[in-house]
């Protein structure tokens, strides 16, 4: 499938997990991509994997902290200039740090919101003029099942993902007449940098029974980043032309 043969895409969180899988999938479908992350070595590995599928010449990597306004504005401008415009923005960068909520330091709260929610806003704001110029621009944002199903010890993370959910609905409506689409993806448990390290990201001695209703084993178990990448590839292509202002939950049936 060459659904991205004439598409210019920008993907954050591209050094690991879901973001990396999205980059590789959109390259495999013919796209040209700028892959963004704070993790330089992870980006180098993404570039190596792109070379393995013969797509290295259509990929540029850029180290950008999405919570840094200046870095985002300069980085997105450079990406748009290099690509000659922009058709698709995938905001997959995110982080999880848990805490018992009554012990959650303001610094931790601000960091989680600052990267996940404000970072998604900063990237989207910087990319919007080029996406509107495209006339068929698509923003794919990463919310989470944490936005809709109580995730204990993750109040900041869940709030950031709930914010992304609402933010995406707002822009979908605001720019609908200009041809922009905006869609939330809500992954359930997907093997990645976050889930593989979950025990170290929540406080010690948490009550794991509180996670029972979120147990991925109720559905098909943990998914792989490629399960999400395939959905993103559909949504942001012309196959998703009538999908906007909504969310797609991809959780292997863990939350039905
Ligand atoms: N894995 C899951 O089960 C799951 C479930 C729901 C939602 N999500 C969301 O999916 C997205 C992708 O996460 P993942 O699961 O692949 O995790 P991951 O840890 O493998 O990848 C996240 C990437 O984001 C990057 N990142 C973090 N802070 C950044 C910053 N300030 N600037 C730029 N890049 C930054 C990290 O370096 C990392 O490469 C995240 O938004 C996450 O919240 C994941």
TrEMBL record:
Keywords: NAD, Oxidoreductase. Residues 7-197 form the Ketoreductase domain. Belongs to the short-chain dehydrogenases/reductases (SDR) family. It comes from Thermomonospora echinospora. One of its GO terms (molecular function) is oxidoreductase activity. This is NADP-dependent 3-hydroxy acid dehydrogenase YdfG. InterPro entries: KR_dom, NAD(P)-bd_dom_sf, Sc_DH/Rdtase_CS, SDR_fam.
């Amino acid at each position: 499938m060459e659904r991205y043969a004439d598409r210019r895409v920008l993907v954050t969180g591209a050094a690991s997990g879901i973001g990396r899988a999205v980059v590789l999938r959109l390259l495999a479908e013919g796209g040209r991509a700028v892959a963004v992350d704070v993790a330089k070595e992870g980006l180098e590995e993404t570039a190596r994997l792109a070379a393995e599928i013969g797509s290295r010449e259509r990929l540029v990597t850029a180290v950008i902290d999405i919570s840094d306004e200046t870095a985002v504005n300069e980085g997105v401008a450079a990406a748009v200039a290099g690509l000659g415009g922009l058709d698709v923005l995938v905001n997959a960068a995110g982080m999880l740090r848990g805490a018992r909520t009554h012990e959650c330091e303001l610094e931790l709260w601000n960091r989680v919101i600052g990267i996940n929610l404000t970072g998604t806003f900063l990237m989207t704001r910087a990319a919007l003029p080029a996406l509107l110029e495209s006339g068929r621009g698509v923003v794919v944002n990463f919310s989470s099942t944490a936005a809709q199903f109580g995730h204990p010890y993750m109040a900041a993370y869940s709030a950031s993902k709930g914010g992304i959910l609402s933010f995406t609905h707002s822009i979908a409506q605001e720019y609908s007449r200009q041809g922009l689409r905006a869609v939330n993806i809500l992954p359930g448990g997907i093997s990645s940098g976050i889930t593989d390290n979950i025990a170290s990201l929540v406080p010690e001695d948490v009550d794991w029974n509180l996670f029972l209703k979120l147990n991925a084993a109720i559905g098909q178990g943990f998914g792989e980043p490629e399960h999400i990448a395939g959905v993103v590839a559909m949504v942001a292509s012309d196959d998703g032309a009538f999908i906007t202002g909504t969310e797609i939950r991809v959780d292997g049936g863990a939350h039905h």
